[in-house]
Amino acid sequence: MRGDANEHSTASRAVEPDDGDAIIEFDRVTKSFGDTAVLHGIDLAVRRGEFLTIVGRSGCGKTTLLKMVNALEYPDSGRVLVNGEEVKESNRVELRRSIGYVIQSVGLFPNMTVGRNVAYVPRLTRAWSKEQERDEVARLLTTVGLEPAIAPRYPNELSGGQRQRVGIARALAAKPLIMLMDEPFGAVDEITRRSLQDELLNLQRRLGLTILLVTHDIREALKLGDRVLVMEGGRIAQLGTPDELVSYPADAFVEELIGG
Ligand SMILES: Nc1ncnc2c1ncn2[C@@H]1O[C@H](COP(=O)(O)OP(=O)(O)OP(=O)(O)O)[C@@H](O)[C@H]1O
């Protein structure tokens, strides 16, 4: 999708919510917490198989936007649709199981081995037989660049980068079509971060995943995103390909972000 000649040619044009290929749609979504308005009428369509990165200052509403996709937050007005179905009307448990969610801080279950962590959702849904479980866990650990031999270890016996990889393997185990990632590489060193980014890009292309990834790091957003959503104060400042953002920043805020 990156570099696609059919990509939107204007720098700040949002995809229309009725885009036929959309897997996630936001339709005039607003959200407040008490007196604080956090999202102001967000219109957004994320395409199937798209890697969308979301960037913006702290508190601009990135996490809230992400949480609306897996029903951790609901809009005050407007609609969020996943696969054409309104999130508000969906079965929350099924929806969450079908969407991978990777966040920086709350990671793995500390009292479970790596293997049990990875197999968590398939165990709940009895998707794997006992024999299958060992093979699938090994395959997933290998997929995210880990030795299958770490399966019996506990999370506190791993490095931060290894834990992040296990978190991604756990999310992948549920065979999600959508992955929501909130600062997934925030706590790892620069070299590990780059290698995790590269592996994630490979995985996304190989599996055709739709990924929404929140980051503070504009370089990460430009590297990973087919499109980048820049948020400012609960609004979309710009939505465009990395090239569009760099060549045609929509306003001074985006320009400063890119420049930095
Ligand atoms: N459950 C909540 N109750 C009250 N206020 C909340 C709640 N969740 C978020 N907020 C507020 O909403 C605003 C947006 O929060 P959000 O987490 O979406 O921002 P963010 O862009 O992800 O920030 P950061 O980059 O710091 O994670 C902030 O002012 C935050 O304090």
Which tags fit this structure?
260 residues, alpha/beta, Rossmann fold, 6-stranded mixed beta sheet, 4-stranded antiparallel beta sheet, 10 helices, 10 strands, disordered N terminus, binds adenosine-5'-triphosphate, ABC_transporter-like_CS
CATH architecture: 3-Layer(aba) Sandwich
CATH fourth-tier homologous superfamily: P-loop containing nucleotide triphosphate hydrolases
CATH class: Alpha Beta
Average pLDDT confidence is 87
Query: What helical percentage do the residues reach?
Result: 25-40%
Shape: globular
Order of helices and strands: EEEHEEHEHHHHEHEHEEHH
Describe the strand arrangement of the main beta sheet, using strand numbers.
Answer: 6-7-8-3-9-10
Number of helices: 10
Ligands, deduplicated: adenosine-5'-triphosphate
CATH topology descriptor: Rossmann fold
Question: What do these coordinates show?
Answer:
With 260 residues, the protein is α/β, with parallel strands linked by helices. It has one domain: Rossmann fold (3-Layer(aba) Sandwich). 35% of the residues lie in helices and 25% in strands. The chain contains ten helices and ten strands. It has a six-stranded mixed beta sheet with strand order 6-7-8-3-9-10. A four-stranded antiparallel beta sheet has the order 2-1-4-5, with no helix packed on it. The protein starts with 21 loop residues before the first strand and ends with a helix. The chain binds adenosine-5'-triphosphate. Belongs to the ABC transporter superfamily. Keywords: ATP-binding, Nucleotide-binding, Transport. It holds the Pfam family ABC_tran. InterPro entries: AAA+_ATPase, ABC_transporter-like_ATP-bd, ABC_transporter-like_CS, P-loop_NTPase. This is ABC transporter domain-containing protein.
